[in-house]
Every structure is written in structure tokens, then in C-alpha cells.
Amino acid sequence: MFIFETSQIVLLKISSLRQKNVVIFNFYVGDNIWQEDKADIDAHVSTQFVYNANNSLSLDVQRKRLPIFKVKNHILYLLEKYQTLVLVGETGCGKSTQVPQYLLEAGWSADGKIIGITEPRRVAATSLASRVADERNCILGAEVGYAIRFDDCNDETTKIKYMTEGILLREMMGDPLLTKYSIIILDEVHERTMLTDIIMGLLKKILKKRRSLRLVVSSATVDAEELRDFFNSRKSSSNEDDLATILSVEGRLHPVDVHYLAEPCADYVQAVVDTALKIHRNEEQQRGDILAFLTGMDEVDRAVSLLKEHAERIGIDKQLKLLPLPMYGSLPYKDQLRVFQRAPNDTRKVIVATNIAETSITIPNITCVIDCGFVKLPWFDVETQTNSLIVAPVSQASADQRAGRAGRHRPGKAYRLYTEEAFAALPVATAPEMQRSDLAPAVLQLKALGIDNVLRFNFPSAPPSKSLLSALELLYGLGIIDDDGRLTNPLGNMGCSEEITTILAMLQVQNVFIRPAGGQASIKARIAHRKFEVAEGDLLTYLNIYTAYEKNKTHSWCQQNFINFKAIKRATEIRTQMRKLIKKLGLPLLNCGINTELILRCIAAGLFPYAAYLHYTGVYRTVRGNRDLHIHPNSCLYTLEQPQWVLFGEIQQTTKVYMRELTVIKPEWLVELAPHFYRRTAIDND
DNA sequence: GAGCACTGC
């Protein structure tokens, strides 16, 4: 028996089945890679526009105009004195591009050491590296480089390296003290992603062991003191011994006037429409576009269609026309691009967006922001092991981030559709992802890094202990950790490793299916997709699609079949990476041919905790907990006859509690494959 | 009949 980790699946476990010569893949996949319905994964690569008000100035003059320039020497001095510097500065102050260069110029990359900067998103890592390479007049990938998955753009001369958080975590596995680096800059820490928090916990340990290492924690907001105290592991109470300190940099380039409602509003979608129209009427002379934040696609579409009705009327008698545009992740790429295109001179754009416009993309020329005051947040309920999106009030930090979108190149205005008292009552910051997610992937990651006692691990914000325990329980149930909480080490031969790697790769890319919203195209897409659907469920349908794609591998094949070309190409990369890993580990890559049941049993061996059966009432029920469940409309089983027993990859609660990524199984497999988990009696009941 | 946003040796 043995265990191995790949970069894409959190863990791929192979264990032997009791049958002779048959070995199964047991797999456990991290929560968020099951998500689908995402925007074209590479859509934002080319939509990352950042407005540069000083475009005509030389790069050097531009650099010196940035607010961060004034504190350059301060930063360098503080890093001589302290091991950790919490750098607070809002977007636009230049910290992401300038600080690494100051450090380089001050000699922090001497004796071959690297200055590393982590970013939560790939576009940020690549575009910042490209910008800094320009500023230094060097080729991208030499002195200044980047590393994201499947794209290493750096060499042995690289001194400044931008990377995604996942890359740094991976590097810790091979080099636990990060000896290549003289300094690590964690950028956008205020977003408090799962990976940021894990990395901060690990870096705290590394900093104790490597006193020469420096850390810059770069955050836009408030939590500075909390973060400083976290890294201040000094023994005495004297400030002289402090290891961490804070430096604030004055923020954005232009002020934003914030307006509140005098009275709360009943319908914020209607209020967005009314406010946008009011701005448009009253500020005819002040050109500049409007950006409104709503929580989801439905609301965005509703607001846009209401605005369009008014826009037509305005078009007749007004000088300045109004062009309402939607913006959200699942919007087709070409429609997303429209928000970046310059409107005609006689037209003002009103962009109605989800949270995508808060951090992921930057739309130029915005002078007015409308903030509905709410956001959809992913929430994991430990008790029911259910993911849901809850509509929650935004935090003050988010509201400020949204408002800041109005002041990027000239003074702006922000209209908050709530009262000033309501703002004061908002939470200061959104709860870190770690406190509202399934922790099984994180716990596994930590275990793989040698953190045996995760309950005592020093997290920057401790997750609920219930979540940690539940994660441990799941890993134990899957046989991934033993009685002592240590990773097990199972190894076996496989009967269908090839098929399983393909399925795993497909599960990790979002938006494999192109599903047009309506009309003729949506019917065509459905017919095209139906060709691949099988009664065994979604996972085998994915296998079918990939196998069919392999024979052609062309863009036109994908177009004909309404398959997302970029997504499936990425699946190929992931699959290739996994196959290499399997070979490296000396395991056979076996294709089981027509023995589909073997694949189904493999899936069952990995997903057995997530079993549901069809109740006589016509809805499904979980075996654990007897909760009512429904088949998600995007599942291939939605239109087919309802099978008696299914395994699901994820439960998502929206209007109903939905199961996604379904696989049809025989109930006796559960008892056979997971006897410690299921007893025959339990299954025969009901 | 449904979709906040990201990410990985």
C-alpha cells in the first residue's frame, strides 16, 4: 500500500482490493476542484487591463511618482531591524511592483538568493512579472520571472520571482526552509485565501528556524495588527525584541467621496437601477463610467434589462447615452470583453458586475461605484458537509475595496445602498476562507508537509475545531491517515489507472461543457452533449468526452460538440502531469478496456462516504444523516431514469440541496469496499 | 432547471 500526492488532486490513494489481481484507485479530491460552471479558465488572461494614468511618462519617472517611493528607505531600514514587515497600502500605491525592486537594488538577491512574491491569482503573477521586467528593461524570465502551474518562466539568473501561492507551497515540500529565498513577499494577504493562511502558518515556523529570512506581508487593510502579533513570537514583553512591525503607505491616487442612503432600501436591484439613472442625469458633465456591484448573475441580468429599457428612452432626448453591460464569471468570453472596450464619445457605460470586479478584474475609466452592500460567499456547513453560497452583508474592507474602484485615475464617487449606521455595523473584514471551508484538503496538505498535529498548528486565524476534527475523521475513514493521525502508505497495482487519471483531470477543469443561455444554440448544445452521456453517471461521461476528444484534439471538434477547448486542453496538461507522476513512482498505467465496473468500483472506493439512495418519496437521501437531496440539473442523470444508488462528489445548497458529479453504484459495493464505514444492516434498512 | 471568485511538483 502507498500514498502519493499529486499537485492536482489532493491525494490519490491506491489500495488493493481483495479480489485477485485487481487493484483499485481510491481517490479523494479537494472540495473546490469539483466546482464547475466557471468562466473560461483563461478568459481573464487577456482581460487584465490596468489603467495607467501616467502612460506618457517614462517608466522611471512613473516609478518615482508612486506613493510607495516615499517610504522606500523606511522599508529597507525596517527589514534590517525586523524579520517580518506588515506593509499596509491600498491598491495603486505600487507595492506589488516596487518593493521587490527596492529589495533587489538594496542587495537582497546577493549570493544567488531569490526575492519571491506570491499572488492569489495567475494573471496577477504573470502580469506583474511582465510589468516589472519592462520597468527594469529586461527580458521576462531572466532577472524578473514568474512561475505558475504549467508555466515556468524563470531561469538560474532570476532574482525576482512572482508566483502563485500554490507554487510556493509546493516548493516547501521539496525545500522546507525555502533556502532559495532571502525574502518572501506575500501579496494581497487581506483576501485571506486558504493558501495564504496555510503559508503564513508554515512561514511562522520557517522564520524561527531561519533567522536570516525576511517576510513582507502585504495587505490592503485593517488586519495589520493581528498579523503583526501573529508573527511577533518574541519572548519578553519589551518592544525592543519585536520581530514584526507595521508600515502604512498612503493609499490610492485619488479620493473617493462616499455617499450613504438616509433610509435603508427594500430592493437593492431596483435601487442600483435608480441610482445609476440618477448619476447619469445629474452628472452629465462629468464623464466616466459607472460600476455597480450585485451578488449574482440573476440580479445582474435583471438590473441590466431594467437599465436597458431606460437607456432606450434616454437615447432619444439626452446628449449622453447610457450603455448597460453585465459582467460575471460565467458570461461568455466575448461578452466579458465588452466591458473593457471604450464606449463611443456620446455614451456612458454602466457595468453591473458580481464580485468578479472587486479583485479579479480591473475595469478602466470608472468614476462612480454603486455598492448594494451584499456578496455571495461560499460557506461549508460541517454538520451536514454541505457547500452553499450564502448572501451575506459585505465587510467594511470589501465595501472600501469596491469604493476604491472609482478612484483609480481621478477623484470618484461611491454610492452605498445602505445607511452609514449599517456600514458601521458591518464586520470589519470577511471571515478568512479557512474558517468557512472544508478543511480536509488543507489538513492533508499539512500532513504531507510533516505537520502531524494539525490541531495544535498555529493558524493565523484558528478554524473551528469541529471543522478540523471532521476533516481528520474523513481522512481516517478514507484510510488516508492511521490511528495515530499519520499518513498511511498504501501501494498496489491498478486495473484502471489510466481511466481514473483521465476522470480526475476532467474533474479539475471547470466549464468543460459550453451551455448557451437560450435559443437554438442551447438546444444544439444539449443534443451534442447527449452523445457522451451514459447511464453510469457524470464521471464516466467525462471519461467519454475526453476519450472522444483525444481522437481529434481540434478546436473545431470542440466547437461542434459544445466543449470548452481551453478547458479540455488544460485537462490534458493535468492528465499528462499525473501520468508522469505515476510512471515516476513505478506504477503501471493500465487501461481496463470494456470492464466499466472496475472503474465504477474504483470511484466507489474513493467516494464511499458520499452515498445516497432513492427514497420512496421520490427524492434522494444521504446514507449518513438521512438528508433529502436532489440531482443537480446539470448532471447527465437529471434527464435519465433515477438510479437507486448514487455517489456524489459534492453537495451544493442553492434553491434545493443538490448533488453534483454523480456516479451510479450497486449498494453491495459499499459494504464490500468500505466495511468499516457501512454495515449490511444499515443499508438494508429503509 | 441552475451558476461569488480563485488556485496546484
From TrEMBL:
Organism superkingdom: Eukaryota
Record domain Helicase ATP-binding: where: 76-240
InterPro entries in UniProt: DEAD-box_helicase_OB_fold (IPR011709), DEAD/DEAH_box_helicase_dom (IPR011545), DEAH_win-hel_dom (IPR042035), DNA/RNA_helicase_DEAH_CS (IPR002464), Helicase-assoc_dom (IPR007502), Helicase_ATP-bd (IPR014001), Helicase_C-like (IPR001650), P-loop_NTPase (IPR027417)
The keyword Metal-binding is assigned to this record: no
Enzyme Commission number(s) from the entry: 3.6.4.13
Protein name: RNA helicase
Source organism: Trichogramma brassicae
GO molecular function, one term: hydrolase activity
Catalytic reaction annotation: ATP + H2O = ADP + phosphate + H(+)
PROSITE patterns xref list: DEAH_ATP_HELICASE, HELICASE_ATP_BIND_1, HELICASE_CTER
EC class of the enzyme, as a word: hydrolase
SUPFAM superfamilies for the chain: P-loop containing nucleoside triphosphate hydrolases (SSF52540)
Domain Helicase C-terminal intervals: 272-450
GO cellular component: catalytic step 2 spliceosome
Membership in a protein family: Belongs to the DEAD box helicase family. DEAH subfamily.
